[in-house]
Specification:
- This protein is an alpha/beta fold and 594 residues long.
- It has 3 domains: 9-30 and 163-260, Phosphohistidine domain (Glucose Oxidase, domain 1), CATH 3.50.30.10; 42-152, PtsI, HPr-binding domain (Enzyme I, Chain A, domain 2, Orthogonal Bundle), CATH 1.10.274; 268-583, Phosphoenolpyruvate-binding domains (TIM Barrel).
- The protein has 23 helices and 16 strands.
- The chain has helices at 45-69, 73-76, 80-89, 92-105, 109-125, 130-152, 176-181, 200-208, 244-267, 292-297, 309-313, 321-332, 370-376, 378-391, 407-426, 444-448, 450-454, 464-472, 490-505, 523-528, 541-549, 553-564, 569-583; strands at 9-12, 14-17, 20-28, 167-171, 187-192, 212-214, 228-232, 237-240, 281-286, 303-306, 340-343, 397-401, 436-441, 459-462, 509-512, 533-536.
- It has an 8-stranded mixed β-sheet with strand order 1-8-7-3-4-5-6-2. The protein has an 8-stranded parallel β-barrel with strand order 9-10-11-12-13-14-15-16, surrounded by 5 helices.
- Helix 20 links the parallel strand 15 (509-512) and strand 16 (533-536).
- The chain starts with 8 loop residues before the first strand and ends in an 11-residue tail after the last helix.
């Protein structure tokens, strides 16, 4: 532990849950449990396997107890994450791999677990999608729980711990089970060394509206119990032992944010329309049915992107047609939404989509994934499409196909959808025969032939996360090139502009559903591009609406032209930040700089 006393020490991480809180540090020192790796004799193999099975049973019982202890209805909605962890603990692939390692290599359980989990984590690390890569954390949490049971006999959870007054948890990491157990009467926020925005822990923090900053790197080595600390979940800033002057600034900002939140919830119900009458639909990106309450509260007109990957990753076997149908029907039956866009499977065919075997790839981000995998594994694809079509009889569902790079993929997809429709007709099952079919514009080739693609589909949805990476040839999670991830790069803006013009000349709508949509700074540029719809994290909707309602469309078109005349993204961002600070001074000025 570093005994140096810091004053006004500013640390930066990833703000994953909005809000500001001040309090005393409660340091959760629960480091990695050291394991012994040892070989075992043949006659001890069965005993070791039994030891592993007892640890699995204990872990399931612990998680079940955590779930049963939840009394708050709002928190109960997120207990499905604990269910997902329990499913992994019962997954035959996971269990058999560990048992095989014990039996074949004649090693103890801890060593076998380490080998199997390392292999699983390596597969997740190769995944391009942030959300999917973060699912590796769930495997890691399970591994840590099992090791603690094997070494110490039980795990140490937060629940029931003595915390004096309002405390802020500081830890190397928090599992979703930890977060769900937080006593909100005693704990007002948390900060961790590791973690990302799309981790289940971060999702739970946002749902519970606990200010949180993760991925700080080294906060556990810099703080002591009872240090004073400020958490700013909006800016991703943590301040250790702030002076009274800095505390005063943040208390003022905290009061402003509370007032702003009340204003945002009022704005959420208003139309997303510019001062001069240009209307832009604002929808939500979600991945779980449990997020529907938030979607309505924060003013989404519809679901611009429903990610379906969790349906595949949260179970031991591939989902059936009826599994899909029951989930999508619940979505469709929501009468508050104008449209619900379901994106078909957007992951590669690794072993986590249990029943599919594909060769290992050097570069899975550009390999057999998304629509490429679905066209190859037709039964997998048809099960999902049949589920969507069946559910479309109950509400305004749309189908969105990811990673389209050429016209043949679109035509093959439409042919498969037609087959599904014919099969349902034959069975006399109701469905929406006019269901809209759209494609994601996230590959540069799709932008370049967007005029041809627009003649084949009912709508476009621009996925800027991948479009930026593929256009600029960078991996934004690679620390050496992440600085090149520039949404305002002239090439990126020209790509989007080309797709918008192609869509409108063919009389179809075009949405934008990447992270760029949820950043208020970029709203005037997106308005200037004349997109028909933006889709974002539900919590971002009110702020986006506020910006939309405070601008004139004619001004946004002129601002876009000015940004496009610059030579670089940095110049464009400078112009944009200057203008937004002028137009919205309260929303684009920070109260504290390092």
């Amino acid at each position: 532990m570093n005994e140096e006393v810091f004053v006004n020490k500013v640390l930066r991480g990833v703000g994953v849950s909005s809000g500001i809180t001040t309090g005393r540090v409660y340091l959760l020192e629960r480091g990695r449990v050291p394991i012994t790796k040892r070989s075992i004799k043949e006659e001890h193999v069965d005993k070791e396997i039994l030891r592993f099975k007892h640890a699995i049973k204990s872990a399931i019982e612990e998680l079940d107890s955590i779930k049963e202890a939840i009394t708050d209805d709002e928190i109960k909605k997120h207990a499905f994450i604990i269910d997902a962890h329990m499913l992994i603990l019962q997954d035959d692939y996971f269990l058999n791999d560990v048992v095989d390692a014990i039996r074949k290599d004649r090693i103890n359980t801890e060593w076998a677990l380490d080998i199997v989990v390392s292999k699983f984590l390596a597969s997740f690390e190769k995944m391009e999608d942030h959300y999917l890569r973060e699912r590796g954390q769930d495997v890691k949490y399970i591994h840590e729980r099992l090791v603690r049971i094997l070494v110490k006999g039980k795990t140490t959870d937060i629940h029931g711990r003595s915390v004096k007054g309002k405390a802020i948890i500081v830890a190397h990491d928090l599992s979703p089970a930890d977060t769900i157990q937080l006593n909100l009467n005693q704990i007002s926020g948390f900060a961790t060394d590791v973690g990302g925005r799309t981790s289940h822990t971060s999702i739970v923090a946002r749902a519970l509206e606990i200010p949180a900053v993760v991925g700080i790197g080294n906060i556990t080595s810099l703080v002591k119990n009872n240090d004073s600390i400020i958490i700013d979940g909006d800016e991703g800033v943590v301040i250790i032992n702030p002076t009274k002057e800095v505390q005063k600034d943040y208390i003022a900002k905290q009061l402003h944010l509370k007032s702003q939140k009340r204003e945002f919830l009022r704005i959420a119900k208003l139309k997303s329309e510019t001062k001069d009458g240009f209307r832009l639909r604002v929808g939500a990106n979600i991945e779980l049915l449990e997020e529907m309450d938030i979607v309505e509260r924060y003013g989404a007109q519809g679901i611009g992107l429903y990610r379906t990957e969790y349906i595949y990753l949260s179970r031991k076997t591939l989902p059936t047609e009826m599994d899909h149908y029951h989930i999508y029907r619940k979505l469709a039956e929501n009468r508050a939404l104008e449209y619900i866009t379901i994106r078909t499977l957007d992951i590669g065919g690794d072993k986590f989509v249990s029943d599919i075997e594909v060769p290992k790839e050097m570069n899975p981000a550009m390999g057999l994934r998304a629509i490429r995998l679905c066209i190859k594994e037709l039964q997998l694809f048809k099960s999902q499409l049949m589920g969507i079509l069946r559910a479309s009889a109950y509400g305004p569902l749309r189908i969105l196909i990811p990673m389209i790079s050429g016209i043949e993929e679109v035509r093959k997809t439409k042919a498969v959808i037609k087959e599904c429709m014919e099969e349902l007709n034959h069975k006399r099952v109701n469905f929406n025969k006019d269901i809209k079919i759209g494609i994601m514009i996230e590959v540069p080739s799709a932008c370049m032939i967007s005029d041809q693609l627009a003649q084949e589909v009912d709508f476009f949805s621009v996925g800027t996360n991948d479009l930026i990476q593929y256009t600029l040839a960078i991996d934004r999670v690679n620390e050496y090139v992440s600085y090149l991830y520039e949404p305002l790069h002239p090439a990126v803006l020209m790509m989007i502009k080309l797709a918008v013009e192609a869509a409108h000349s063919n009389k179809i709508d075009i949405a934008l559903c990447g992270e760029m949509a949820g950043e208020p700074l970029y709203v005037p540029i997106l308005l200037g591009l004349e997109l028909d719809e933006l889709s974002m994290n539900p919590y971002s909707i009110p702020r986006a609406k506020k910006v939309i309602r405070g601008l004139e469309h004619s001004y946004c078109k002129e601002l876009l032209r000015e940004v496009l005349r610059t030579n670089s993204a940095k110049e464009g961002e400078y112009i944009l930040r200057k203008e937004m600070a002028r137009l919205f001074p309260e929303d684009f000025i920070r109260c504290y700089e390092e």
